[in-house]
Amino acid sequence: MEAIMRYLIGIDLGTSGTKTVLFDEDGNTLKSHTVEYPMQQPKNGWAEQDPEDWYRASVETLKAVTDGIDASKIAGIGISGQMHSLVLLDENNEVIRPAILWCDGRTAKECEEITELIGRERLIEITANPALTGFTASKILWVKNNEPENYARVRHILLAKDYVRFRLTGEYATDVSDASGMQLLDIANRCWSDEVLEKLDIKKEYLAKVYESAEVTGYVTAGASKLTGVPEGTPVAGGAGDNAAAAVGTGVVEDGKAFTTIGTSGVVFAHTKEMHIDPKGRVHTFCCAVPGEWHVMGVTLAAGLSLKWFRDNLCKDEIAVAETMGADPYYLMDKEAEQSPIGCNKLLYMPYLMAERTPHLDPDCRGGFVGLSAMHTKRDMLRAVMEGVVYSLRDCCEVLKEMGVTSEDMAACGGGGSSPLWRSMLADTFGMKVKTVTSKEGPALGAAILAGVCAGVYPSVQEACRSVVKTKTEQAPNAANGAEYEKYYDIYRQLYPALKDTYIDLAKI
Question: Which residues are known to be catalytic?
Answer without folding.
Answer: 242
